[in-house]
Design goal:
Blueprint: E1 6-12, H1 18-28, E2 32-35, H2 50-61, E3 64-67, H3 75-82, H4 88-102, H5 110-113, E4 116-120, H6 129-141, E5 144-148
Parallel strand pairs: 1-4, 1-5, 2-3, 2-4
Helix pairs in contact: 3-4, 4-6
Length: 149
């Protein structure tokens, strides 16, 4: 358990214009984006494609960028949910088991996450692994204040 609060944001880039996305991050005071996507170089990502996003974040908002694959689902888990119209509760169970097995609470530090924002593609956090990551870490550390942007 940690003593100080960790202020952790989450955001999805779909259904947002670049202006809305970057303005939201700036207004929230985000210091660092932690990319939790398995595939962050897809042409479908538009302004959120890895190299472009890294440049835009630094240039527009002076926000650092970090990609942590241990916070992403495996291709199998993601494919089962997306392509085979998987059940969210099954996805959630498999993903939580995956991050527990990976011991992500030992791979990221509270200081690294304080003021950071977990990035994924889903517009809303309800059915997105970024919410699961944030809630899992709060369960392990305590004192993680989660704000979905």
């Amino acid at each position: 358990m940690i003593n100080n609060n960790v202020n952790l944001f989450t955001i999805g880039f779909t259904q947002k214009s670049a202006e809305t996305f970057f303005t939201t991050l700036q207004q929230a005071g985000v210091k660092r984006i932690i990319d939790t996507r398995l595939n962050n170089v897809s042409q479908l990502a538009g302004f959120a494609k890895k190299n472009d996003l890294q440049y835009f974040l630094k240039t527009i908002a002076d926000i650092d960028y970090l990609h942590i694959l241990d916070l992403a689902p495996t291709k199998d888990i993601l494919d089962e949910y997306k392509k085979n119209k998987g059940d969210w509760s099954i996805y959630e169970q498999k993903f939580l088991h995956l991050i527990e097995t990976r011991k992500i609470e030992k791979k990221v530090m509270p200081e690294q996450l304080d003021g950071a924002c977990l990035l994924c593609s889903e517009a809303k956090p309800h059915h997105c692994h970024r919410r699961l990551v944030a809630e899992y870490l709060n369960g392990k550390w305590g004192n993680v204040k989660i704000c979905h942007l």
